[in-house]
Write a structure and sequence with these properties.
2 domains, Ribosomal Protein L9, domain 2, single chain, four-stranded mixed sheet, 3 helices, alpha+beta, Ribosomal Protein L9, domain 1
Length: about 150
């Protein structure tokens, strides 16, 4: 029986895929749970329409993410920290600190998308990688400076 997948099923396929399955599997398991619908000409047209709408939405989202990445890569952040003797900083600069600063500047960036191997524990310029949605990355320059 030919069916159209409505919910992603790991071993069968993604949403909108048209697949062949055994009649009993479709009638007794997939159809009652709402995982699939029968592949009629009307359902196929509807799925194609929905797929095109989803593709447009995803393309728009990717373009917005690319614009955000470009804006962030042009941004330079100054983070003042308290320092002791020999310019040793107290504490460290973490992804949460960077996220707070970006939110203050109007960029909605989750602290989990800021990738730091270790917290920043020295003065100077540090390149920080931000991993946005859909595999888009941006590099942000963080200037850790003495607090006056």
């Amino acid at each position: 029986m030919q069916v159209i997948i409505r919910k992603k099923i790991e071993k069968l396929g993604d949403i909108g895929d048209i697949i062949n399955v055994k009649d009993g599997y479709a009638r007794n398991y997939l159809l009652p749970r709402g995982y699939v619908v029968k592949a009629t000409p009307g359902n196929i047209k509807e799925v194609e329409l929905i797929k095109s709408q989803i593709k447009k939405r995803n393309d728009k989202k990717i373009n917005n993410q690319k614009e955000l990445a470009k804006k962030i890569s042009q941004l330079k952040i100054n983070i003042p920290v308290k320092v002791g003797e020999d310019n040793q900083i107290f504490g460290s600069v973490t992804s949460a600190n960077i996220s707070e600063y970006l939110i203050e500047k109007g960029f909605e960036v989750n602290k989990k998308s800021i990738k730091l191997d270790d917290p920043i524990k020295s003065l100077g310029i540090h390149n920080v990688i931000l991993k946005l949605d859909d595999g888009i990355e941006s590099t942000l320059k963080v200037y850790v400076i003495k607090e006056i």
